[in-house]
Amino acid sequence: MLLELPRRTEIFGSVKIHEMQRVLKIDSGGFTNPRAKDIPFDVIKDVLKRFAIIVPVKDEKIHLLDGVLRAIPFDCTVIVVSNSKREAHDWYKLERNLVKNLHELAQQELIIVHQKDPDLGFALYEAGYDSLLDENSVVRDGKAEGMIIGMLLAKALGKEYIGFADADNYVPGSVREYVIDYAAGFCMAESPYSMVRLHWRYKPKVVADKLYFKKWGRVSETTNKYLNLLMSLHTGFETRILITGNAGEHALTTKLADVLSYSTGYSIEPYHFICLFDNFGPGVTEFVDLDAATAGIEIFQIETLNPHIHEEKGEIHIRNMLLDSLQTIYHSRLCTEYVRDKILEELGDMLEWEEPRQNRIMPSFAGVDALQFEEQLATTAESYARFQRGALEGEEASSSLSTSFEKESTRTI
Ligand code: GDP
Ligand code: CO
Fold this sequence. Notes:
Number of domains: 1
Bound molecules: guanosine-5'-diphosphate, cobalt (II) ion
Number of helices: 14
CATH architecture: Alpha-Beta Complex
Number of strands: 17
CATH class: Alpha Beta
CATH superfamily: Spore Coat Polysaccharide Biosynthesis Protein SpsA, Chain A
Oligomer: single chain
Radius of gyration: 21 Å
């Protein structure tokens, strides 16, 4: 891949935010130039082998999930965390069959689990990580909640990189590009604590019966504006460097995943920045992780070559996302009276209560024994299925990870 070098980097305490980089060629030929980095495909492939891609899914069209799963590069492990309906028509059963079929056809390593499985709730409780659970000890609804379960599983598998791909993407080829973009970003990273966030080149919409290649969405534009404002007011210099406040498509090193705390539902993405600013930003003296603070936390923002076409979820969804994002910024340590007033003005009648609410924050999962958590799921949870690489047809993995490594070594492809 030929990836543009970042022209500028904003340093904010221990956090380094690189300016947007364009993908100049998805597949390049080894020609280097001073403005771009050539990353050979075998180097990317080597990163993909250490990658888990998590697909959070809730009641999406099965055709879309099918395309997404088939597009994720073979070398990655895929972890599907579903919160789809199980009553009447069991959507989860369809999703699980899809995963099983794909494994039978391609022998890729895939895992699937249902977010509401009571045994998953129990395994989290046993692991001492109960912040995802409701009063019945079942995992709450929410995309972030599903993503955290996926990250714990990736950690159990010993993966170094964790990426996310939404299940509602209409263009499978774009999903393949996203994953390769993630890997290319990590090839540029100097710190083991890094994150790659994608920015769509276009997000096409139908406007007056024609396809219109829109560049910015309302939610991301507003979220980015306020995140940049937090930084600008703090340094005294205006910046617009941050353009990926709501990037659902993002990836991070497992080391960084262990350091972060997470905000519920759709506020997880903007909160990455808030968490980093609050814990590693300028003026922080007591670090939650000294190693990360010393190494620095690098954020890459890559503009994809492919446009992003996904399921339109309607006005209420957009509004909730905006509200969640701005609430997160409103309650950050760096937020000044001035920014708060601006946010209140922006929210206007969207705010149905006195003050923006504090989104629920789930603490770091660094202390969780992920291996034991996976082992317990494998032996107890009905919805959990792990299809390992090179396993014989129809053979579903269960039990411990040691068997998976044995199987991996007998891989036939
Ligand atoms: P948007 O693309 O950011 O506007 O949000 P989407 O509604 O498309 O959600 C992103 C992804 O998260 C999709 O694949 C959804 O199916 C999935 N998702 C949404 N809510 C949940 C949830 O509660 N649990 C899980 N596991 N996935 C969810
Ligand atoms: Co979507």
